[in-house]
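Retro notes - structure team

What went well: the batch runner handled both jobs without manual restarts.
What didn't: labels got mixed up in the shared folder, which is why I'm recording both outputs here explicitly, each with its sequence directly above its tokens.

Job 1
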Amino acid sequence: MTEFATEYPHLADLPLSETHGRKLRRIVTEAEWEKEFVDPDHPLEDSFAVDSLRSRSAGTWLDAIHAFLRAHHEYDGMMARFEDRESGDEFDVPLADAWGKEYSKKQYARARALQRQMSGGKRPSGGKAAPAWDDPVTVMLTLTASSVPDGDRLPPVEQMDAIHDAFSYGGVRDTLRNVMEYHLDLDSEQWGYWLQAEPHGMGTAADPDKDAGLNACYTHIHVGVYFDGAGFGDLRPVASEFERVIDKHLEVCDPAGWSAHDYDAIDDYLQEDDGCISMNADVGNLGSYLAAYMGGYTEDLLDKPIEYIAWGAVYWSAARQRTTRSQTVNQAIRADRCEQRAENEESGQVDAHGERI
């Protein structure tokens, strides 16, 4: 991938990780072997030499991109063959990884399903969903970390881990739960979140008028928080409660800095669309909103910007999830899918969602 080496030469030879014990895909690591001589068990036998692993280090970011694209290409045309137990007929199902356009389309469909379940709407199968919430509201939180926190550039896996670990294990997710259920007094089924990672500097290499910035190709996360706002009047005081989540992220994520999370610079959270806290009380198409805000590109991987490919190589190499959703959100998506199956004559399902266990 010569474009990455040309546009980002300072990143191409950067090791993916320097953290001892961090697991990576074997193909993106480099092994150092040493020869050892083994004495025989019996005196009449000759000694022999074996190669033993001395150490294993992470490959470069450029190496990871090559391996990532090769692995993605190998899925092209790959099929899985299954056999019907009753008839014995065989059928093929095309396989796809989580980096192609089909996966992006599926994520978009899930976002639309969430919207239908929470705010109502017509399903593709023809039925109409009753809204679960009276007044759905969306808050988008953006959490990131510097790639050069102390002047020295971090390997991309370390920066990625710092952000995700702060949310999952460092208390940021717990703080979000406390905001929703203690400070805003919502029940657990009255709110949910959708976390989506996205690269910094998307498309800047192809646009000379854009500034890539120090974090180009590195990751950040958007946490879409959805809740029923029917019990609130003015939403501005509600939005300010999410400052607690930003504060917790800054506390536990070492490379994170205030300049990228300066909510004091935001005049109105309901009018903001580019800050660390953005509230939207009227999302007409949640799928499109997520796609625009979270980098939901539906083109093929090779047609995406080089920043996306480089970023994707990091997640692929480290086998790290770039999307997570709360139980409430996943349950809503599954409910919509179940209803669509019940409305489709070819599915074989006749009971609507929740009618039979």
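Job 2
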Amino acid sequence: MNIIMEISENLQKGKAKMVKELVQQAIDEGMDVKTILEQGLLHGMDIIGGKFKKNEVYVPDVLIAARAMNAGTELLKPLLATSGTKAKGKVVLGTVKGDLHDIGKNLVRMMMEGKGLEVIDLGVDVPADKFIDEAIANEADVIALSALLTTTMTEMQNVVDKVNASSLAGKVKIMIGGAPVTDNFRASIGADGYAADAATAAENALAICQG
């Protein structure tokens, strides 16, 4: 088995220490940084995402795989910056104002990062203006909104309205998700995308960014 495949395999098993050692070995051997990232780390995370979508693995498996991926990407980040390798897109992510739930949002972030997207995670209880300011500052392709309460879903409408009234109108796509959220609700508030689970959210965001 070659080292790139080993990175992918160990990432899927959540072996962070091993992934870190293998990534360092690949770097030391002069392997292409982008290849290590895309065919090793992202490939492994992609497989985990697919299995998660099919309920073949569960949240803890995703968490340990993401931790292993982060162990590898930390070594690659400075090299990626100098090699001019860019993220496949930028997403501003957060749980809307009034909502303090973050587990689902964190899963979405991990899955999106696993697709090679740069995610600016604003955390929870994020006001509409903060989404807009960060999207402008980071030249984001997507604003992704999470809500886990029916009472905070209405805040998604507020974000959509404010984005449409801002300089971002027509320039950024808005995705929504969360347990009570549906595609019908997405249509009713004029958001661009909806995903029922974290893996689909990542796939949809990547598709939007690649346009």
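One thing worth noting from job 2: The beta strands are 90-95, 118-121, 142-146, 173-177, 193-195.
We'll revisit the folder naming next retro.
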